Structures are given as C-alpha cells and as structure tokens.
Amino acid sequence: MKKTAISLMVVILAFTNFTIAQDSQTDNGSKWQFRLRGIAVTPDESADIQTIGGDVSISTAVVPEFDITYFFNENWSLELILATTKHDVEAVQTAAGNIDLGHVWLLPPTLTGQYHFTGGDFVPYLGAGLNLTLFYGVDEGPTADDVDYDTSVGYALQGGFDYMLNDKWFLNLDVKKLFLSTDATIDATTALGATVGADVDINPWIIGVGVGVKL
C-alpha cells in the first residue's frame, strides 16, 4: 500500500514539473483559486474485528472545508483540501453486543491533480490524488479503557463543477470519494478482559457546496 502511494505521489510530482515547464512557455503569471465549502462526510464503513467479531458504525459529520487551488494553465491544477471532522464510533453486532467507542477527530489533508473542462461559465472538473488522515482527540467512550487509530495514507477521486458568476467569483459543487482505512486497537481489559484489534475501512463520500474566488 505504502509503495503504491509513493509511486502515485511520484507520478503527481512528475506531472507537476511537466505542467510548470509547459506553463512557463505560455503564461507569465500564476493563477490561484480559493473555495469555502460546507461538506457532509458520510463514511461507507466496514470492519474486521478480532476476537469478538461484528462490524463498525461511524457517524456522518457536517463541517466547513477550505481549499486552495493552483492552476498551471487553463486546464490543469493542483488542489489542497483542508478540513477536520468529528465522528461517533460504535462496534455493532459483536459477541459482546453493541459497544460505544466514543468519538474521534479526523484531520485528512488531501492533494488532488485536476483537469478542468473550459469553454464557458459552467466549468466541470475531474481529479485524483492522495489523502493523509491523522486521528486525534480520541474519546474512548464508556466501555473501552483506550482506543488507538493508526495514521492512514489512501487515494482520493473527485468530480465537480464551478459556475462563474463573474470573472472573479463562482459557485461550486464538489464530490469526493476517499479510500481510507486504519488499524484500530481497543483496550477493553476492564470490561471484556481483552485488547481487541480491528481493520477498519472508512471510505467516506464527501459532498460539498460553496463559493470561491480567483486571485
């Protein structure tokens, strides 16, 4: 997984160097774009839980998101997506019943390369890239003594469109799919007499609507 992620990053960086070289021959200035979106993060979750079996349930979060886009030319760009979300977590249908695992905060900076289809006020785009997810602010809930989540590196796919209101301001609709998984360790020694490991796939859909500006 890590080797594949590194290879994809190398491809993105090579593409970036190429487009910068191309852009330097055709454009004398850079183009920056900033968006502020409201996003709904809906996990498409599943888990392989050791010892006690069962599955996982992870709540949807609605939060603001900020992103920064740099255009190498009219069509190609790189976008950095910044947001943080809080999710309630529960192990369900286990041998010990449903177990409240409290909540966890996710910080998932995501970098995507994008192609924009230009030619009018309606500007659709497609993107793909990498996601790094950090887990913090863990509340283990009433049953577990501690819950630990491993940092994750995964892929991201993206599609959406900008609708230009004028030369500077625009509206945006964006949909992303993150392929995100983590190894979780639940210390439930007090309640269950065991420490339980789990492979958790979060794989959220992220749907956002917002406004942006070109500078």
TrEMBL record:
Q: Which SUPFAM superfamilies match?
A: OMPA-like
Record's superkingdom? Bacteria
Can you supply one Gene Ontology CC term for this chain's record? Answer: outer membrane
UniProt cross-references to Pfam families, sorted A to Z: OmpW
Tell me the first and last residues of the signal peptide: 1-21
- Please name the InterPro entries in this protein's record: OMP/PagP_B-barrel, OMPW
Alphabetically list the UniProt keywords. Signal
Per the record, the GO terms for biological process are: transmembrane transport
What is the name listed in the Swiss-Prot or TrEMBL entry for this protein?
Answer: Outer membrane protein
